[in-house]
Design goal:
Length: about 280
């Protein structure tokens, strides 16, 4: 009988120890993998376009008068008409043409999938944020306001990126000593990133990263139709950009003056203190 009581007491002790270990160890384990939200890449560019407009104004007036008489007798009949009309009008046409310049702002709904994949491969957890759909583009770069409005629920950090240069190039180069020509379509994308703490708004990493891609075809027939693969170019840019971003985050965020470790430990202790466990 005594052995049964001791067995039950030991079983309860093991359960209690397991629960306590889970309660205090799991926050630290989860804290070792912070949750990061990745925004779509913001952009701003100056657009200059040609415009032409026509404006036509007109005024028209008319007046008329007429008189008719009729005479009839036993021997003859006659009819007479007389009238007068006047028609006048004025038309003016105004034409304008020139160039107008304006600022275009927005977000690219592409190039972020491979960034998220690179962060996942580096051991981070990635959470999905809400897309930015406001019409007021003046607040496009106010990432702190978006965090306060709850655009990134559950995220410990937000990786905010903005495009600084995006350039397509087409190069046609004749090959010396032959009739062949090399045709190349290339794309370079350079973006600047900031990794922002959603609680303190502190910048934990800041860097620029570049993605590159190209497609080349060698044609021997002069005048042949050329089809360069634009989709392949964009895919290469996205993948190389994702690798570059993940490398920079890992280099700055993981080894940067202990910020990551201290911040995550603080969050773990906060969660642990809030937990109360009662055993009977």
């Amino acid at each position: 009988m005594q052995s049964i009581v001791l067995s039950r007491a030991l079983h309860r002790a093991l359960i209690a120890a397991a629960v306590i270990a889970a309660a205090f160890a799991s926050p630290a384990a989860s804290a070792a993998e912070p949750q990061i939200a990745v925004t779509d890449l913001s952009y701003e560019e100056k657009v200059r376009e040609h415009f032409q407009s026509f404006e036509m104004k007109g005024r028209h007036s008319s007046s008329s008068s007429s008189r008719e008489s009729y005479r009839d007798s036993d021997y003859s009949s006659s009819e007479r008409h007389s009238g007068r009309s006047r028609d006048s009008g004025e038309i003016s046409i105004r034409s304008q043409s020139g160039y107008q310049t304006y600022i275009d702002r927005g977000e690219l709904r592409k190039f972020t999938a491979d960034i998220k994949g690179g962060l996942l491969n580096a051991g981070y957890r990635v959470v999905q944020g809400k897309p930015w759909t406001q019409q007021n583009t003046e607040k496009l770069y106010d990432i702190i306001d978006r965090i306060k409005q709850g655009y990134y629920p559950g995220a410990d950090y937000v990786l905010f990126g903005t495009v600084s240069n995006l350039e397509f190039r087409r190069d046609d180069s004749p090959i010396q000593g032959s009739d062949a020509t090399s045709y190349t379509l290339s794309l370079e994308l350079v973006a600047e990133f900031s990794l922002i703490d959603t609680r303190t708004y502190e910048v934990n990493a800041a860097f620029s990263a570049m993605g590159e891609g190209s497609d080349t075809k060698l044609i021997n027939a002069p005048g042949a139709q050329i089809h360069l693969n634009r989709s392949k170019v964009i895919q290469e840019v996205s993948r190389s950009l994702g690798e570059a971003v993940a490398h920079e985050v890992e280099a700055q965020f993981s080894s940067g003056s202990g910020d990551r470790g201290s911040t995550l430990t603080e969050r773990s202790e906060t969660v642990s203190k809030e937990r109360t466990i009662i055993f009977q």
